[in-house]
Amino acid sequence: MTAPPSDSPPSISDLPPAGLSLSVPIADHEWDLIIRPQGRWWELQLADVWHYRDLLWMFIRRDFVSVYKQTILGPIWFFIQPLLTTIMFTVIFSGVARIPTGGLPPMLFYLAGTTPWNYFASCLTKTSGTFVGNAGLFGKVYFPRLVSPISVVVSNLIQFSVQFLLFFGFLAYYLLKGTPLHPDILMILLLTPVLLLLMALLGLGTGILASSLTTKYRDLTFLIGFGVQLAMYAAPVIYPMSSTPAKYRLLIEANPMSSIIETFRAIYLGGPVPWAQLGISSIVTGILLLFGIAIFNKVEKTFMDTV
Amino acid sequence: MSDTVISVERISKLYRLGEVGTGTLSHDLNRWWHKVRGKEDPYLKLGETNDRTVKGDSEYVWALKDVSFEVKRGEVLGFIGRNGAGKSTLLKILSRVTTPTSGVVKAKGRIASLLEVGTGFNPELTGRDNIYLNGAILGMRKQEIDRKFDEIVDFSGVERYIDTPVKRYSSGMYVRLAFAVAAHLEPEILIVDEVLAVGDAEFQKKCLGKMENVAQGGRTILFVSHNMSAVRSLCHRAVLMANAKVSQIGATNGLIANYLDDLNETSSLEIDYSTVPRVGQFGSRLKLQRLEINEGAGIWHGKPLKIDFLYECFEDVEEVAFGIGFCNRDGIRILSMDSDIPGSRWKFKRGQRGVVRVSHPQLLLEPDFYTLDVGVRSGDNAGLDYLPQSGRVTVMPSEATPPVIAMRETGRGGFRLPAHWEINSI
Asked: Per the count of CB atoms within 10 A, which of A241, B144, B180, B253 is most buried?
């Protein structure tokens, strides 16, 4: 380095006036870490998250173990809840209200809607509590905060798998019974991972956006709770897209989950894949996610002061 | 090649006091409106220094103001100062828990903090799983933990229970395991805040040894503590903070002396009374020179207590009794020990010097700060020497301390009697 290190430590009276650099001039690139008041909003710090991938795995493992340890029935709860919901839907919406299910068996129709919706909804609600729920941990040690919501989204796959198995069981049952269903094997193999990724990213994006805003405006916590419930009715979970009146269709299509659910139903039960809407959903998901991460990174730096 | 590993340049931190959540939206809008018009943040200039003794008019307060210093490679730098002086805020910024309002920190190498041991421990998981989880939270990679696993278990001394969920651990075992993980982190820069307040004396010695090893290995340590003897033994250089600013940087001994003078407090385990001014005739016939507590090994809740009174006589005195009292934060005496209560009185000759020791197998004061009242009497009421509120000691939690008390953020002090309880139906 060019300049020699200073011999004696400076006392407060030796400090230079504002605008002068105190330290020996060392080029910024020589430092491994520079802490500034605010990062640039476009620095997503994803490399940092990658560096902590082992922590991500430990969090997932922790969630997995604690889910099994605290209950007697364990993962069976994941089973009972969607099953009862679906039976309820079948009785109320199909049996009483006579909402059409597009010619599909009601049980199967509802399960094909609730399985993806539940995954998205639980990703959203659980990640929305990231900051408030982890305040104790975040207040003591640094790691990329994004690891925490990502681990939630991955852990939720356990719940999704169980519900998916339930759906798959019913699908197999109806197929054996000879019900006219048209699962598209190629599309299933191709699109299932894409749909999962879309749901995960959408849940993550909206969830971290919500969690960032709740640190300052706690009112949002309540809004999210019932907002997610209401949003289900703005997605084709209990009715098929084809039966919606034209004046509401735009509203429903504005929900990025709508095309994901429609696609899910189309590839497993038969029907046209809404490619255009799915494309739009992917773009919306991408924008929401980038926006969410940017806000999240901004909030993670100072949220300890407001929580 | 410069040896500077941390450069802190004019760091300031503004905190908002009071109710957060009321009026924040209006403040945000107002701030935004000022920004749009290219004006300064209207709330920033309202800040005041963080002096708790003066009630501020503004709800914004500077927790740090223009703090600058540098740390060299391999240095163990101590941070001392009163509660609220800004030490912890500074360490929080360095460990990236929060960011400064203005200023820049530059560092070389990995920074890891021991702001609180056991962070992220999950009670349901086994000791083994928690080593991996905690290690990962502190920034270790899995292979790194694999490599050090045996060493960590060895250091913690809980090998037998390594596959037991940590909720079944005693608080002592819990802390040992947590510290063991943190101690094997091997970052280039280690931040330690008050961890030494937990654990028994033997374990504390082990930790201090480990920290010295870390420092000798060329790594840098930033150490915040109220335990002056630990700061003195570990740090060559220290930063004294007062009212959100760095008031002095320099050699540890001089700084500690300044700090204690400033506080009008004496160091924790050895209290020098030789130069303390006395009221009236106190100290003229017999004078207390100094007090040594537990031979400098710390005062621990539930553990034996030994106090040595070093005295010097200037006249022949008879029926001499010694006494010591512990006062809580409010200055109220809550524990007294007098040598003449069990009937010990002595006769001293002029010029005699010596040591009187009082001991008890179990100190039942809760972990907290206490001030001491120390006195010597001749007969029943003739005071020879008396030093009220003359020293400040810290009772630290040990494994005998119930975790709910040990983990309490602020001590409340008090005498805790382990009484016998039973239930009977009528």
From this structure: B180
Spatial strand order in the sheet of B245-251: B111-114, B189-193, B220-224, B76-81, B237-242, B245-251
What share of chain A has pLDDT > 90, as a percent? Answer: 37
| DSSP-derived secondary structure letter, B365 | B
Percent of chain B with pLDDT over 70: 79
Residues in chain B closer than 8 A to A3 (CB atoms): 2
Closest CA to A269 of A242, A230, A232: A242
Q: Which of residues 73-132 of B touch A (CB under 8 A)?
A: 92-111, 113, 115-116, 119-120, 122, 124-125, 129, 132
B285 and B397 share a domain? Answer: yes
List of chain A residues whose C-beta atoms are within 8 Å of the C-beta of residue B106: 23, 26, 28, 31, 33-35
Structure confidence at residue B119 as a pLDDT band (50, 70, 90)? confident
B-chain residues near A71 (CB < 8 A): none
- ipTM score for this prediction: 0.77
Q: Does B352 share its domain with B205?
A: no
Domain that holds residue B395: 270-406
d(CA B203, CA B174): 12
The CATH number given to whatever domain includes residue B257 is 3.40.50.300
pTM for the structure as a whole: 0.68
Instruction: Write the CATH number for B328.
Output: 2.70.50.60
Tokens of B320: 């001499």
CB pairs under 8 A between A and B: 157
pLDDT tens digits for A146-172?
Answer: 999 999 999 999 889 988 999 999 999
Same-domain pairing of B279 and B382: yes
Residue B224 within any structural domain of the chain = yes
Residues B307 and B235 in one domain: no
- The Cα A238–Cα A94 span in angstroms is 9
B106/A34 touch (CB, cutoff 8 Å), yes or no: yes
In a domain, B28, yes or no: yes
Q: Could you read off the pLDDT of B124-177 as tens digits, one per residue?
A: 888 999 999 988 888 888 999 999 999 999 988 888 999 998 888 887 788 788
